[in-house]
Amino acid sequence: MAVGKVGANSAKRSRQLQLLNAVPPYRPAALPILDERQRGTKFVSLEPKSVLNSPQQTGVDFWSLNPYIGCEFGCTYCYARYAHRYTVERAHDAGKLTDEEFLEFRGPHGWEAFEKRVFVKEQLLVALERDLRRYFRSFGPTDRPPAPIVIGTATDPYQPAERRFRLTRGILERLARCEGLNIGIITKSPLIARDTDVLRHIQERSDLEVHISLTTVDVALIRQVEARSPMPAVRLRALKRLADSGVRVGLIVAPVLPGITDDVPHLEALFQAAREAGARFVHSGPLRLYAAVRDRFLPMLDERFPHLAARYRRAYDGRSGVPRDYARALSARIKRLQTRFGFPVNEGMADRYGRRLAPAHQEAAGAIRVPGERGDGGSLRTTAGTGAARARIVSVQATSLAALPRRAR
Q: For 175, phi and psi rounded to 5 degrees?
């Protein structure tokens, strides 16, 4: 009898072991899906340890803050795809994505999922509190004004996800409790007008500058290079609404696409629209073709602007930026238009975040308080040869182009 019981217990344990063996090996918690669009976009939860990136981390002279990673707007020239790819690779290395999910979150060429798998930084305000303490400690007892905090340097803080998740709104409400900061915001979205109240509150206590991004007023053209971004007219209406409310707001015309949006009539239309909407400034800069951009942008050129594709490849061969002479000629053209339309003349993208605080605010900036805590024509032209003939020639006349073509008519 005892032998029978032992045999039965042994068989039971054997069955239990078989069941246990069928359990998959342990893996960290998968990334939760918060929402999904009918067109296939998924919003994925990401709990960050830090959200405010210092100049030492990024190599730029301001602190950056991006509440989302990935963007539904799908601009072909966006350089932020590398950040999404890096996030996906880290999640895979940490075991939060299976091999199959990893392929889904990258896309066939490593960039497609940037527009289809948007990471939402939940619990962002908890991380921001820690980061603000680090931010204020980085200055210490000094009269030097704090470095700017710029929201939206990589992905748009007012992309469609913001309508539901309201992360950017939460960030602004937290920063509104501070004094003497220098804050910049970059967006393509008219949704920013929703937050006019908190923007005005920030501007009463800190230095604020809002940049509405617009590369063209040509609707057909914008659909060629920006898959799902808001139309020019609604961006300009948002700019006007902010300007009429007293918010310091202007236009950021970047990137200027050589041979596509760099001709004078095209730029004139942008400057005129900015002036009519009440913009206080216009900043501009040419396209930069980083490695993460080439895989997306150049195939678009091949398909939609085939007559420009070879010229772009020659002009950007071995470099991410436009040839120096082209950059100088474009800068001169922009400055002439700034003068003509009554905007302050600036050095393009390099001086976007200069301080403009009134004297009382300048004094406050030295000891930041945080409540609760102690006229030309044509298009630009550049040619490049080989050897001694490699000197680049720039023309601002209405002549044909060699390496960087004039905009298609």
A: -70, -25
Edge-to-edge strand list for the sheet holding 63-65: 52-53, 63-65, 149-151, 182-187, 207-213, 249-256, 282-286
Please enumerate in sequence order all residues whose Cβ is within 8 A of that of 169, keeping only pairs 6 or more positions apart, or say none.
Answer: 162, 194, 195, 198
pTM for the model: 0.79
Strand (E) positions, 328-405?
381-383, 393-395
C-alpha to C-alpha distance for 90 and 106, rounded to whole angstroms: 12
Q: For residue 57, which of 89, 86, 91 has the smallest C-alpha distance?
A: 86
Q: Rounded to an integer, what distance in angstroms lies between the CA atom of residue 54 and that of residue 138?
A: 9
Q: What is the pLDDT of residues 5-30, one digit of tens each?
A: 545 554 454 455 554 455 455 444 57
Return d(Cα 328, Cα 172) in angstroms, integer. Answer: 36
d(CA 69, CA 222): 23
pLDDT in tens, 114-172: 888 899 999 899 999 999 998 988 776 655 667 899 999 989 999 999 999 999 999 99
In the block, residue with structure tokens 């990136």:
53
Element (H, E) at 254: strand 249-256
Angstrom distances, CA of residue 305 to CA of 74, 224, 301, 325: 18, 9, 5, 23
Q: Where are the alpha helices (DSSP H) in 77-123?
A: 81-93, 99-106
Token pair recorded at residue 354: 């200069």
pLDDT tens readout for residues 195-246: 999 999 999 999 999 999 999 999 999 999 998 999 999 999 999 999 999 9
